[in-house]
Design brief:
Elements lengths: L5 H12 L3 H8 L3 H8 L6 H11 L3 H8 L24 E8 L2 E10 L4 E5 L5 H11 L2 E6 L5 H4 L2 H7 L4 E3 L13 E3 L5 E4 L2 E7 L8 E6 L7 E6 L2 E2 L2 E2 L8 H10 L9 E4 L5 E2 H7 L6
Parallel strand pairs: 3-4, 4-5, 5-6, 10-13
Antiparallel strand pairs: 1-2, 2-3, 7-8, 8-9, 9-10, 11-12, 13-14
The chain binds fe (ii) ion.
Length: about 290
Protein backbone atom coordinates (compact mmCIF):
# COMPACT_ATOMS: atom_id res chain seq x y z
CA UNK A 1 0.00 0.00 0.00
CA UNK A 2 1.45 3.37 -1.01
CA UNK A 3 1.93 5.95 1.73
CA UNK A 4 0.25 8.66 -0.34
CA UNK A 5 -2.91 8.46 -2.41
CA UNK A 6 -3.91 10.85 -5.24
CA UNK A 7 -5.60 13.07 -2.60
CA UNK A 8 -2.37 13.45 -0.57
CA UNK A 9 -0.33 14.20 -3.67
CA UNK A 10 -2.51 17.02 -4.95
CA UNK A 11 -2.82 18.40 -1.40
CA UNK A 12 0.96 18.45 -0.96
CA UNK A 13 1.48 20.06 -4.36
CA UNK A 14 -1.12 22.79 -3.72
CA UNK A 15 0.39 23.45 -0.27
CA UNK A 16 3.83 23.63 -1.89
CA UNK A 17 2.61 26.21 -4.39
CA UNK A 18 0.86 28.14 -1.57
CA UNK A 19 -2.24 28.33 -3.75
CA UNK A 20 -5.72 28.91 -2.39
CA UNK A 21 -8.57 26.78 -3.70
CA UNK A 22 -9.63 29.77 -5.81
CA UNK A 23 -6.18 30.05 -7.33
CA UNK A 24 -6.14 26.35 -8.23
CA UNK A 25 -9.66 26.66 -9.65
CA UNK A 26 -8.40 29.44 -11.92
CA UNK A 27 -5.62 27.20 -13.19
CA UNK A 28 -7.49 23.88 -13.43
CA UNK A 29 -11.07 24.96 -14.11
CA UNK A 30 -12.28 22.66 -11.34
CA UNK A 31 -14.39 24.40 -8.73
CA UNK A 32 -13.33 24.85 -5.11
CA UNK A 33 -15.84 22.41 -3.60
CA UNK A 34 -14.76 19.69 -5.99
CA UNK A 35 -11.04 20.29 -5.30
CA UNK A 36 -11.79 20.03 -1.57
CA UNK A 37 -13.65 16.76 -2.15
CA UNK A 38 -10.75 15.37 -4.20
CA UNK A 39 -8.28 16.38 -1.48
CA UNK A 40 -10.52 14.47 0.94
CA UNK A 41 -10.25 11.32 -1.18
CA UNK A 42 -13.25 11.53 -3.49
CA UNK A 43 -12.30 9.40 -6.53
CA UNK A 44 -11.25 11.61 -9.47
CA UNK A 45 -12.29 11.16 -13.09
CA UNK A 46 -9.50 11.02 -15.64
CA UNK A 47 -10.07 14.54 -16.94
CA UNK A 48 -9.69 15.95 -13.41
CA UNK A 49 -6.44 14.06 -12.91
CA UNK A 50 -5.01 15.53 -16.10
CA UNK A 51 -6.14 19.09 -15.38
CA UNK A 52 -4.83 19.04 -11.81
CA UNK A 53 -1.53 17.47 -12.88
CA UNK A 54 -1.00 20.16 -15.51
CA UNK A 55 -1.93 22.96 -13.09
CA UNK A 56 0.29 21.65 -10.29
CA UNK A 57 3.33 20.72 -12.45
CA UNK A 58 2.87 17.00 -11.76
CA UNK A 59 3.31 14.29 -14.37
CA UNK A 60 -0.19 13.47 -15.72
CA UNK A 61 0.57 9.88 -16.71
CA UNK A 62 2.31 9.04 -13.44
CA UNK A 63 -0.45 10.73 -11.46
CA UNK A 64 -3.09 8.76 -13.41
CA UNK A 65 -1.35 5.50 -12.52
CA UNK A 66 -1.52 6.35 -8.83
CA UNK A 67 -5.12 7.61 -9.05
CA UNK A 68 -6.06 4.33 -10.73
CA UNK A 69 -4.02 2.19 -8.29
CA UNK A 70 -2.12 0.80 -11.29
CA UNK A 71 1.33 0.92 -9.74
CA UNK A 72 3.20 0.28 -6.57
CA UNK A 73 6.79 -0.90 -6.19
CA UNK A 74 7.19 -4.63 -5.66
CA UNK A 75 10.35 -4.74 -3.57
CA UNK A 76 10.00 -7.46 -0.96
CA UNK A 77 12.45 -8.68 1.68
CA UNK A 78 15.02 -10.10 1.92
CA UNK A 79 16.61 -6.90 0.62
CA UNK A 80 20.20 -7.92 1.12
CA UNK A 81 21.50 -11.40 1.86
CA UNK A 82 25.17 -11.73 2.53
CA UNK A 83 26.88 -14.40 0.47
CA UNK A 84 29.96 -15.15 2.54
CA UNK A 85 28.66 -15.70 6.08
CA UNK A 86 25.41 -16.62 7.75
CA UNK A 87 23.77 -17.13 4.37
CA UNK A 88 20.06 -16.53 4.46
CA UNK A 89 20.07 -13.68 6.93
CA UNK A 90 18.81 -10.39 5.62
CA UNK A 91 21.15 -7.51 6.37
CA UNK A 92 18.18 -5.16 6.67
CA UNK A 93 15.74 -5.48 9.55
CA UNK A 94 12.66 -3.28 9.33
CA UNK A 95 11.20 -1.87 12.54
CA UNK A 96 7.51 -1.73 11.82
CA UNK A 97 6.65 1.04 14.26
CA UNK A 98 3.48 2.91 15.18
CA UNK A 99 2.88 6.39 16.53
CA UNK A 100 -0.73 6.06 17.63
CA UNK A 101 -2.17 4.13 14.71
CA UNK A 102 0.15 5.73 12.13
CA UNK A 103 2.86 3.38 10.81
CA UNK A 104 6.49 4.52 10.71
CA UNK A 105 9.62 2.70 9.56
CA UNK A 106 12.98 2.41 11.27
CA UNK A 107 15.69 0.19 9.81
CA UNK A 108 18.70 -1.75 11.05
CA UNK A 109 21.58 -2.41 8.66
CA UNK A 110 23.55 -5.40 9.92
CA UNK A 111 27.02 -6.74 9.21
CA UNK A 112 26.41 -10.25 10.60
CA UNK A 113 30.01 -11.32 10.05
CA UNK A 114 31.38 -8.51 12.19
CA UNK A 115 28.46 -8.65 14.66
CA UNK A 116 27.62 -4.96 14.33
CA UNK A 117 24.66 -2.92 13.21
CA UNK A 118 23.51 0.64 12.68
CA UNK A 119 20.01 2.00 13.26
CA UNK A 120 18.35 4.44 10.82
CA UNK A 121 15.60 6.24 12.80
CA UNK A 122 13.91 4.77 15.86
CA UNK A 123 10.56 3.91 14.29
CA UNK A 124 9.15 5.32 17.55
CA UNK A 125 9.83 1.86 18.97
CA UNK A 126 12.64 1.76 21.57
CA UNK A 127 11.30 -1.51 23.02
CA UNK A 128 11.52 -3.22 19.62
CA UNK A 129 14.98 -1.78 19.02
CA UNK A 130 16.33 -2.93 22.38
CA UNK A 131 14.68 -6.37 22.05
CA UNK A 132 16.29 -6.86 18.63
CA UNK A 133 19.73 -5.96 20.01
CA UNK A 134 19.26 -8.33 22.95
CA UNK A 135 18.02 -11.22 20.80
CA UNK A 136 20.75 -10.93 18.22
CA UNK A 137 23.64 -9.93 20.50
CA UNK A 138 24.69 -7.40 17.84
CA UNK A 139 26.65 -4.35 18.83
CA UNK A 140 24.98 -1.06 17.82
CA UNK A 141 27.73 1.21 16.50
CA UNK A 142 25.69 4.25 15.43
CA UNK A 143 22.19 5.69 15.24
CA UNK A 144 21.66 7.74 12.08
CA UNK A 145 18.64 10.02 12.30
CA UNK A 146 17.17 11.40 9.08
CA UNK A 147 15.39 14.25 10.88
CA UNK A 148 13.99 15.14 14.28
CA UNK A 149 10.25 14.60 13.90
CA UNK A 150 8.94 12.62 16.90
CA UNK A 151 7.96 9.53 14.90
CA UNK A 152 11.60 9.23 13.76
CA UNK A 153 13.52 10.03 16.94
CA UNK A 154 10.97 9.07 19.62
CA UNK A 155 12.54 6.69 22.15
CA UNK A 156 16.14 7.68 21.44
CA UNK A 157 16.69 8.59 25.11
CA UNK A 158 15.46 5.16 26.19
CA UNK A 159 17.79 3.49 23.69
CA UNK A 160 20.71 5.64 24.87
CA UNK A 161 19.93 4.83 28.49
CA UNK A 162 20.67 1.18 27.67
CA UNK A 163 23.34 1.43 24.96
CA UNK A 164 26.27 3.84 24.67
CA UNK A 165 26.09 4.85 21.02
CA UNK A 166 26.80 7.98 18.97
CA UNK A 167 23.77 9.61 17.39
CA UNK A 168 24.12 11.37 14.05
CA UNK A 169 21.65 14.17 13.35
CA UNK A 170 22.09 17.45 11.52
CA UNK A 171 22.76 20.41 13.81
CA UNK A 172 19.91 22.13 11.92
CA UNK A 173 17.49 19.62 13.49
CA UNK A 174 18.58 20.00 17.08
CA UNK A 175 16.67 22.28 19.40
CA UNK A 176 16.74 22.66 23.17
CA UNK A 177 13.75 20.30 23.27
CA UNK A 178 15.85 17.46 21.90
CA UNK A 179 18.38 16.23 24.43
CA UNK A 180 20.74 13.80 22.74
CA UNK A 181 23.71 12.21 24.43
CA UNK A 182 26.76 11.62 22.32
CA UNK A 183 25.41 13.75 19.46
CA UNK A 184 27.41 14.19 16.26
CA UNK A 185 26.19 16.94 13.96
CA UNK A 186 26.03 15.18 10.62
CA UNK A 187 27.09 17.22 7.62
CA UNK A 188 27.20 16.73 3.85
CA UNK A 189 29.28 13.70 2.81
CA UNK A 190 30.44 12.53 6.19
CA UNK A 191 31.36 8.85 6.33
CA UNK A 192 30.26 6.53 9.12
CA UNK A 193 31.69 3.02 9.40
CA UNK A 194 29.66 -0.07 10.21
CA UNK A 195 31.71 -3.26 10.15
CA UNK A 196 33.07 -3.75 6.64
CA UNK A 197 30.73 -1.11 5.21
CA UNK A 198 30.53 2.64 4.99
CA UNK A 199 27.63 5.07 5.11
CA UNK A 200 27.79 8.47 3.40
CA UNK A 201 25.52 11.25 4.60
CA UNK A 202 23.81 13.50 2.08
CA UNK A 203 21.97 16.66 2.91
CA UNK A 204 18.33 16.50 1.69
CA UNK A 205 16.49 19.47 3.26
CA UNK A 206 12.95 20.60 2.49
CA UNK A 207 10.74 18.35 4.64
CA UNK A 208 12.84 19.74 7.50
CA UNK A 209 15.85 22.07 7.45
CA UNK A 210 18.42 19.43 8.36
CA UNK A 211 16.92 16.42 6.60
CA UNK A 212 19.60 13.85 5.86
CA UNK A 213 19.74 10.83 3.57
CA UNK A 214 22.19 8.03 4.36
CA UNK A 215 23.65 6.26 1.32
CA UNK A 216 25.54 2.96 1.26
CA UNK A 217 27.30 1.15 -1.54
CA UNK A 218 27.92 -2.35 -0.21
CA UNK A 219 30.08 -3.54 -3.14
CA UNK A 220 32.03 -5.72 -3.47
CA UNK A 221 30.72 -7.77 -0.54
CA UNK A 222 27.06 -7.76 -1.47
CA UNK A 223 26.76 -5.53 -4.50
CA UNK A 224 23.80 -3.39 -3.62
CA UNK A 225 23.22 0.30 -3.14
CA UNK A 226 20.94 1.55 -0.41
CA UNK A 227 19.60 4.91 0.72
CA UNK A 228 17.69 5.65 3.89
CA UNK A 229 15.74 8.73 2.91
CA UNK A 230 13.49 9.54 5.89
CA UNK A 231 10.51 11.66 4.82
CA UNK A 232 12.17 13.32 1.83
CA UNK A 233 10.60 10.76 -0.50
CA UNK A 234 7.86 8.15 -0.28
CA UNK A 235 7.15 5.59 -3.00
CA UNK A 236 5.27 7.59 -5.63
CA UNK A 237 5.33 10.78 -3.59
CA UNK A 238 7.39 13.09 -1.40
CA UNK A 239 7.14 14.17 2.22
CA UNK A 240 5.26 17.33 3.10
CA UNK A 241 7.40 20.42 2.62
CA UNK A 242 8.03 22.21 5.93
CA UNK A 243 6.58 25.38 4.40
CA UNK A 244 5.63 26.36 0.89
CA UNK A 245 8.99 28.18 0.72
CA UNK A 246 10.83 24.87 1.14
CA UNK A 247 8.75 22.95 -1.44
CA UNK A 248 11.21 23.70 -4.22
CA UNK A 249 14.09 22.88 -1.84
CA UNK A 250 12.53 19.48 -1.19
CA UNK A 251 11.90 18.77 -4.87
CA UNK A 252 15.48 19.75 -5.56
CA UNK A 253 16.86 17.52 -2.78
CA UNK A 254 15.00 14.52 -4.13
CA UNK A 255 15.90 15.20 -7.76
CA UNK A 256 19.52 16.21 -7.32
CA UNK A 257 20.49 13.78 -4.56
CA UNK A 258 18.14 10.80 -4.20
CA UNK A 259 17.09 10.33 -7.83
CA UNK A 260 20.70 10.84 -8.88
CA UNK A 261 21.86 7.69 -7.08
CA UNK A 262 22.30 4.71 -9.46
CA UNK A 263 18.93 3.44 -10.78
CA UNK A 264 19.12 0.12 -8.91
CA UNK A 265 19.54 1.85 -5.51
CA UNK A 266 17.01 0.59 -2.96
CA UNK A 267 15.25 3.48 -1.23
CA UNK A 268 14.04 2.99 2.35
CA UNK A 269 11.50 5.71 3.29
CA UNK A 270 10.26 6.70 6.72
CA UNK A 271 6.74 5.64 5.77
CA UNK A 272 5.31 3.18 3.26
CA UNK A 273 6.98 0.60 1.05
CA UNK A 274 10.57 0.22 -0.10
CA UNK A 275 11.21 1.41 -3.65
CA UNK A 276 14.11 2.05 -6.04
CA UNK A 277 15.50 5.05 -7.91
CA UNK A 278 14.41 3.51 -11.23
CA UNK A 279 10.84 2.96 -9.98
CA UNK A 280 10.63 6.55 -8.76
CA UNK A 281 12.06 7.97 -11.96
CA UNK A 282 9.37 6.08 -13.87
CA UNK A 283 6.42 6.55 -11.53
CA UNK A 284 6.78 9.50 -9.12
CA UNK A 285 4.40 12.24 -10.34
CA UNK A 286 6.36 15.03 -8.62
CA UNK A 287 9.08 14.54 -11.25
CA UNK A 288 7.57 14.99 -14.71
CA UNK A 289 9.15 13.02 -17.54
FE1 LIG B 1 8.82 13.70 9.17
Amino acid sequence: MLEDAFADIIGKARFGKAWSLTELKGRSNIDEARITALEEEAPPVQDEVIRLAEALALDPIKLSEIAGAEWEPQIAPPYLVEADADAGKDMIYVIDGRIGSYPVNGYFFIDWKEGVCVLFDTGYSPTKVLAFLKETGLSLVAVCLTHAHPDHIGGIQEIQSQVAVPVYLSANEVSEKIALKNHIGVEEKMTIGVGRFEITSRSTPGHTDGGTTYYMDTAPIVPKKLAFVGDALFAGSIGRAKTSETYSTLLNSVKEVILSFPPETLLFPGHGPVTTVAEEQRHNPFFPA
